[in-house]
């Protein structure tokens, strides 16, 4: 994805509420399953991470994207935004 497409998705995510919260147990199998379910349903989701460790949050974003085949859209503070196109796309992303 190019920067314009990422920017478009970031704009769409602005009004979203977090649908998955990652607590003290970290990135567990149940959390990954919940992320997958929500990506299938919404394509673009916001995740809230309760950890105060910035490096840990960045690593979680990398792990989530690699394990769920998603694209990292945004990472600010304790919120992560990821996108994965479903088989029946709901979000039309501009080509340029």
Notes on the structure:
This protein is of the alpha+beta class. The chain has a single domain, classed as YhbY-like (Translation Initiation Factor IF3, 2-Layer Sandwich), CATH 3.30.110.60. Helix content is about 40%, strand content about 20%. It has three helices and four strands; from the N terminus they run H-E-H-E-H-E-E. A four-stranded mixed beta sheet has the order 1-2-4-3, sandwiched between helices. A hairpin with a 2-residue loop joins strand 3 and strand 4. About 20% of the residues are buried. The model has no long low-confidence stretch (mean pLDDT about 95).
Short description:
This protein is 42% helix and 21% strand. It is globular, with a radius of gyration of 13 Å.
Question: The CATH topology, please?
Answer: Translation Initiation Factor IF3
Task: Compute the number of helices.
Answer: 3
CATH-level-2 architecture: 2-Layer Sandwich
Give, in order, the helices and strands.
Answer: HEHEHEE
How many DSSP-defined strands? 4
* The level-1 CATH class: Alpha Beta
Please tell me what the overall shape is. globular
Percent of residues in helices = 40-55%
Summarize the biggest pleated sheet. 4 strands, mixed
What is the number of domains? 1
């Amino acid at each position: 994805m190019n920067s314009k497409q990422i920017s478009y998705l970031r704009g769409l995510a602005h009004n979203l509420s977090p649908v998955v919260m990652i607590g003290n147990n970290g990135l567990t199998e149940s959390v990954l399953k919940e992320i997958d379910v929500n990506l299938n349903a919404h394509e673009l989701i916001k995740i809230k991470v309760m950890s105060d460790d910035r490096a840990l949050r960045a690593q979680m974003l990398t792990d989530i994207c690699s394990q769920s085949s998603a694209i990292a859209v945004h990472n600010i503070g304790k919120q992560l935004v990821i996108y994965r196109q479903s088989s029946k796309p709901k979000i039309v992303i501009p080509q340029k």
